[in-house]
Amino acid sequence: MIPSFGIPVIGFSLLFSIAMCVHVVRTNQAMYWLMIILFLQPLGGLVYLIAIVLPGLVGGPTARRLGHEARSALDPGREYREAKAACDETPTVHNLMRLAKAAAGQGRHEEAEQLYARAATGIHADDPTLLLGRAVSLIELGRDAEALGLLDALGADTDAGRTPAAALALGRAYEGLGRTSEADTAYQWAAGRLPGLEGLARYAAFLARCGRAQEARETLADIDRRLAAANPAFRAEGRAWRDLAARAVSQGRF
Fold first, then answer.
1. What DSSP state is assigned to residue 239?
2. Of 252, 169, 254, 167, the residue nearest 210 (C-alpha)
3. Cβ pair 163, 186 in contact under 8 A
4. In degrees rounded to 5, what are phi and psi of residue 103?
5. Number of other CB atoms surrounding residue 74 within 10 Å
6. Predicted confidence band of residue 4 (pLDDT cuts 50, 70, 90)
7. In 3D, which of 202, 134, 190, 192 has the Cα closest to residue 165?
8. Largest alpha-carbon pair distance within the chain?
């Protein structure tokens, strides 16, 4: 026998799931959401609420980020598939850039590099976003000298080229080429200015690889303090960068 207090809970869960299914149909969402909502009650409906409904109602950057993270967790390859379909249909610079970013997110750095190169032609040849994206892909592929050439070209634009993200890429390229002093300057500058924890994490890892163990541990402790105070919505990403730094600190390498 179901306890009497359980009946309202079950009824509410069913009504909530039905409401979410109605939203799926009326807003032309992907039909797989119906299976998620119905077969994973009430968790499926809650995920749909966070991923789809709330971002549409609130519209702020945090809500959109939460929605994107929820969708990515359920279907990590979705953005790549959608970006590829859009690019295949209309290979505009915007769609090429979107696909390149999605490919990089999937670890497909060779594909990303080629897409960035394809997009950076004509009037877009000096586009800072394309240059930086391609440079980072080249760094991931171990082609640091080529990346440095692009970053030097990017740095000629003092407004768009000298950003914390560009400095971080510059530090990585310098390190790959054995130019440790220049890498230290670039890493340190980026770590103090780049939002999030990637800059600090990569700097801590660099310090560890250089044998500067105490400085690396101090930087890792700073990461831990920032992570503890971070908004819960950003902690998953922050923990990933913290883990990267911690591995380097414990091993002296990646």
1. H
2. 252
3. no
4. -65, -45
5. 15
6. very low
7. 190
8. 75
